[in-house]
Specification:
By secondary structure, the protein is an alpha/beta fold. It folds into 3 domains: about 5-140 and about 265-325, FAD/NAD(P)-binding domain (3-Layer(bba) Sandwich), CATH 3.50.50; about 150-260, FAD/NAD(P)-binding domain (3-Layer(bba) Sandwich); about 340-445, Enolase-like, domain 1, CATH 3.30.390.30. The chain is built from 13 helices and 21 strands. The strands form 5 sheets. Strands 1, 2, 3, 4, 5, 6 and 16 form a 7-stranded mixed sheet that branches. It has a 5-stranded antiparallel sheet with strand order 17-18-21-20-19, with helices on both faces. It is globular. The termini are far apart.
Length: about 450
């Protein structure tokens, strides 16, 4: 019998922590998991799930308008924010219960409270100490906002999921996927929406054509862009706020939301006191097997700041369970990880961007298509789809595939399998398309756009 209370003590019951705890227990380990907020972590409570539900809600106004072109008469387009909020909250509660049930069924002991690490094998929760052979930190991240005058008036994505009422006018500050997604959500729900970003072009790290195409489409939908602009301070008015920008621009608004990044959630964990090495931004430094500088302490998910995606955290949690309790040292392959941005229209992407491919490969061939979807030939809506394939000319291997358009995430998921299998452009060309669909365009692009 081990001298420790547990073989594994997991701090944080988000996607990665729950996966590691469940499968470690299934492999025979004695496992406990501590959580001080909500079961399921960011994704279930203030991330992927409620965000996607809000995206669905915000798109109905276009669906109602488009329906008339197909012969439907829509009598009412009234929106009730409280109904959406109540239904969303009920769904989240249901998912919280499922996560707790999954852990219980696996034999994992759930400890409610904030955990801190005392030493390499000891954790404290609510004044009670527990010992473990291994400790796994899976506490995720938390939105960060700049330290500017008036910062107390800022909301983040976390608060946006629980607003008592939606504003008439909002400024969203940020240039990443969270800012872009919420701009589409608020705009779709009828809010006068301004997206502000300090740089000249948003969605840094995505393919250049994707970034430009999305900006055009979002502007068509009525979103106002203020690029190369940054707020220096925020002042409260009798009604609403005024944002005072560094260039002297002033903007009045009902609400200001920041989506300018997330920081690893490590405050109060005691990592520094036990000697766990951290990066400058607070991320825990781990090796390929997610082991920190302390042999018995591991970390996964957003707190290590590699790729902040729920499926990545799941893979990392699985790898730790296999390494520690299945005698199968396991890494995670971070190449060709597909992702979707639930902007409006949405982005789906996998593999290298054109910019990355040109840096790594001597001769790159680009295939690209820009067209109006069949659906909108009747609606006359001025929305265009972008599809792009990036190929290494020497090997014919497809290096990257990108899309902006309806169901982009659903379509790219299947293409990600092909890229993971090493598909060539010839394989794409030999594949018979499904007609009429958007996806068939990926197997019918024959002429490159560059020499």
């Amino acid at each position: 019998m081990s001298d420790y209370d547990y073989d594994l003590f997991v701090i944080g019951a988000g996607s990665g922590g729950v996966r590691a705890a469940r499968f470690s227990a299934n492999y025979g380990a004695r496992v406990a998991i501590a959580e001080d907020m909500f079961m399921g972590g960011t994704c279930v409570n203030v991330g992927c799930i409620p965000k996607k539900l809000f995206v669905y809600a915000s798109h109905f106004h276009e669906d109602f308008v488009d329906a008339e072109s197909y012969g439907w008469s829509v009598n009412s387009e009234q929106f009730n924010w409280k109904t959406l909020l109540e239904n969303k909250n009920n769904e989240i509660k249901r998912l919280n219960g499922i996560y707790e049930q999954l852990l219980g069924n696996a034999g994992v002991e759930i400890i409610h409270g904030r955990a801190s690490i005392i030493d390499a094998h000891k954790v404290s929760v609510g004044g009670k100490e527990y010992t473990a052979k291994n400790i796994l930190v899976a506490t995720g991240g938390w939105p960060s906002v700049p330290d500017i005058p008036g910062k107390q008036h800022i909301i983040t994505s976390t608060e946006a999921f629980y607003l008592e009422k939606i504003p008439n006018k909002i400024i969203i500050v940020g240039g990443g996927y969270i800012a872009v997604e919420f701009a589409g959500i608020f705009n779709g729900l009828g809010v006068d929406t301004t997206l502000m970003y300090r740089g000249p072009k948003f969605m840094r790290g995505f393919d250049g054509d994707v970034r430009e195409h999305l900006a055009v489409e979002m502007e068509k939908k009525g979103i106002t862009f203020k690029l190369s602009t940054n707020i220096s301070k925020i002042q409260k008015l009798d009604q609403g706020f005024v944002a005072i920008c560094e260039d002297g621009l002033t903007l009045e608004t009902d609400m200001i939301m920041y989506a300018t990044g997330r920081a690893p959630k490590i405050k109060g964990l005691g990592l520094e006191s036990v000697g766990v090495e951290l990066r400058e931004n607070g991320a825990i430094i781990v090796d390929d097997y997610f082991q920190s500088s302390i042999e018995s302490i591991y970390a996964i998910g957003d707190v290590i700041d590699r790729i902040q995606l729920t499926p990545v955290a799941l893979a990392e949690g699985m790898a730790v369970a296999k390494t520690l309790f299945c005698n199968v040292p396991s890494k995670v392959d971070y190449n060709d990880i597909a992702t979707a941005v639930f902007s409006q229209p949405p982005i789906g992407t996998v593999g290298l961007t054109e910019e990355e491919a040109r840096k790594r490969y001597e001769d790159v061939v680009i295939y690209k298509s820009d067209f109006r979807a069949l659906k909108h030939t009747l609606t006359k809506r001025d929305e265009r789809v972008l599809m792009k394939i990036i190929v290494d000319k020497k090997s014919d291997r497809v290096l990257g595939v990108h899309m902006v358009g309806s169901d982009a995430g659903e379509i790219i998921q299947g293409i990600a399998v092909a890229l993971k299998a090493g598909a060539t452009k010839s394989v794409f060309d030999a594949t018979v398309g499904i007609h009429p669909t958007l996806a068939e365009e990926f197997v019918t692009m024959r002429e490159p756009v560059n020499s």
